[in-house]
Design a protein that fits this description.
Helix content: over 70%
Shape: globular
Low-confidence stretches: 1-11
Radius of gyration: 20 Å
Number of strands: 0
Mean pLDDT: 92
Largest sheet: none
Structural class: mainly alpha
Number of helices: 9
Length: 235
């Protein structure tokens, strides 16, 4: 009996060890991608030739957006076929492209309000991520509702491009904050479960950590952009 208890305890410690290592890798990759995006956005915004090339041509701007979307689809769908180095490269290229498109926020909002919003986002994201990691409650239903609401937000946002309705704009904004707050907790819990299952090898863990980092990176960026609508001081 004692041997069985001892073996079970060792197994549990092994699971927690792999889980902690995986989650650490996820957040390290996410932090690196956010750093890359932030630096690229800032230097692009402070370079007249670069920022003018982006804002003066719809073809360039929307081309960057389409490129980002294609990279996300490619990384998520082909992760098992990609090598570890290729997965890292795709993720970093995506973070660079996102930095280029996000540089336009420096033309709309003051630098101080962008910094303040980033801190608010980091605090909110951190709190919800900790909740998702430590809660014993199954957040699947919250995740499902958030995903359905996200589809509604996307449709409503497209419609409001033509309507330009201010009330709809603010409804979408606050709903967007709620959606990505919920998704942050849900995605963190999901990644914790993935980490507890273990991986066939080190490369498998590394590739899944990159995919997990992409998921949380998207949660953070979208939460930041919706909060910026609320807290951002326009120039």
């Amino acid at each position: 009996m004692e041997n069985q208890v001892s073996t079970r305890t060792k197994d549990q410690l092994g699971i927690k060890s792999h889980q902690a290592l995986f989650i650490t890798k996820v957040y390290n990759w996410m932090a690196l991608a956010l750093l890359v995006t932030g630096l690229v956005a800032y230097f692009t915004a402070t370079s007249p030739s670069l920022i003018n090339a982006i804002v003066s041509s719809k073809l360039v701007f929307f081309g960057l957006l389409i490129g980002e979307l294609l990279l996300v689809i490619y990384l998520t769908s082909a992760i098992n076929r990609l090598s570890q180095n290729m997965a890292i490269t795709v993720f970093m290229v995506y973070s660079i492209l996102n930095g280029l498109t996000m540089s336009v926020i420096f033309l709309v909002y003051t630098s101080s309000s962008i910094s303040t919003t980033f801190l608010v986002t980091a605090g909110t994201f951190g709190a919800m991520s900790l909740y998702g990691y430590y809660t014993k409650k199954d957040l699947t239903s919250i995740g499902n509702m958030a995903m359905m609401a996200l589809i509604g937000i996307i449709i409503a946002s497209i419609v409001n491009i033509f309507l330009q309705n201010e009330m709809m704009y603010w409804i979408i904004t606050y709903l967007g904050v709620a959606v990505f707050v919920g998704l942050t907790a849900y995605d963190t819990q999901k990644l914790k479960e993935i980490g507890s299952r273990g991986f066939a090898n080190e490369e498998g863990m590394e590739k899944m950590s990159i995919l997990g980092a992409l998921t949380l990176y998207l949660d953070f960026i979208n939460l930041f952009l919706f909060l910026l609508r609320i807290f951002g001081g326009r120039k």
